[in-house]
Automatic annotation (TrEMBL):
Presence of the UniProt keyword DNA-binding in the record: yes
Keyword DNA-binding among UniProt keywords: yes
Alphabetical list of Pfam families matching this protein: HTH_1, LysR_substrate
Protein name: LysR family transcriptional regulator
Residue ranges occupied by any HTH lysR-type domain in the UniProt entry: 1-58
Cross-referenced PANTHER family: HTH-TYPE TRANSCRIPTIONAL REGULATOR YBHD (PTHR30419), NITROGEN ASSIMILATION TRANSCRIPTIONAL ACTIVATOR-RELATED (PTHR30419:SF8)
Annotated keywords: DNA-binding, Transcription, Transcription regulation
Similarity field: Belongs to the LysR transcriptional regulatory family.
């Protein structure tokens, strides 16, 4: 017995006639009679008493009627829900973003996406890139933004932003008038870092060690604005991505290019290769990819 059998049963019960039910369903009367007969044989009960062309539900038929109606309604609701999902009328996406990414790039992206898909809900989780990557791998998040490099065997990805880190110093710092600064010149400095669950934490330490010194970290934070305020209070120096630096107060903080080495800040969107993605999540990926491609094209045109 399947949903079609129940649908036919309900039509006969509604019309109290096999002939009228068949006409309503655009099938032949022998077809519906055979269908009801097969249900009765499967259940081992008689569903209808036949009185010529008229039929009445038996007590067994009455008992099944309410259940059958609930099942058919549930199935129709399920079909409608699936249709809505496939047409992207609704859905839910879990997205992980490092705090810097959320504040700098994605409010406009989220706004445009919501304009087009108002009934798709988005759960944003702000965490360091290492935590975001780990949560996507575990299935806690659907999609996330992390720093390159990432595990290409585990994740699909596409590039979002290619920028670099800049050096932040207090206006009274001895390097403030320099056009650029090499990392090896910072061996005696006090550093304000992101926390250990941020990819930049390990990235900067690795570059310092490669330059011949272990950085002296005096403060750690998860918020870029707090880090910049620590620099403005002359409590240390810091590195922040170039797009973030454009939002800082140039009177209170000096921003200098870092060279030898240039530390890249390349963002990529990732999702698991071996895990199912909802229609809404797939549309978010397509939408975001198109948006950033258009932005890159427009920037190239300006240049």
């Amino acid at each position: 017995m399947d949903i079609r059998h129940l649908h036919y049963f309900l039509k006969v019960a509604q019309h109290k006639s096999f002939t009228k039910a068949a006409q309503d369903l655009y099938i032949t009367q022998p077809t519906i009679s055979k269908m009801i007969k097969s249900v009765e044989e499967e259940l081992g009960v008689v569903l209808f008493n036949r009185f010529g062309k008229q039929v009445e539900l038996t007590d067994a038929g009455q008992m099944i009627l309410a259940q059958a109606q609930d099942i058919v309604n549930s199935f129709q609701n399920l079909s409608s829900e699936l249709e809505d999902l496939m047409k992207l009328k609704k859905g839910h996406i879990r997205i992980g973003l490092p705090p810097m990414v959320g504040s700098s790039f994605f409010p406009k992206v989220l706004g445009k996406f919501r304009e087009q898909y108002p009934n798709i809900t988005i759960q944003l989780v702000e965490d360091g890139a290492k935590k975001v990557e780990a949560d996507i791998e575990k299935g806690i998040l659907d999609i996330g933004v992390v720093l390159l490099p990432t595990n290409e065997e585990v994740f699909h990805s596409f590039s979002l932003v290619k920028e670099k880190l800049m050096l932040l110093v207090h206006p009274s710092h001895m390097l403030v008038n320099r056009e650029s600064v090499s990392l090896s010149e910072l061996t005696q400095e006090s550093f304000v870092f992101f926390r250990k669950d941020f990819a930049l934490h390990d990235r900067i330490i690795a570059e310092c060690v490669r330059a011949g010194f272990q950085p002296r970290v005096v403060y750690e934070s998860s918020q870029w604005d707090f880090i910049s305020e620590m620099v403005a209070a002359n409590l240390g120096i810091a590195f922040l991505p170039e797009p973030i630096c454009r939002e800082l107060d140039a009177e209170r903080i000096r921003i200098l290019p870092l060279i030898e080495p240039v530390i890249p800040w390349h963002l990529t969107m990732i999702w698991r290769k071996d895990r199912y993605l909802s229609f809404a999540a797939r549309e978010w990926i397509r939408f975001t990819q198109d948006l950033f491609k258009r932005r890159d094209t427009e920037n190239e045109a300006v240049l």
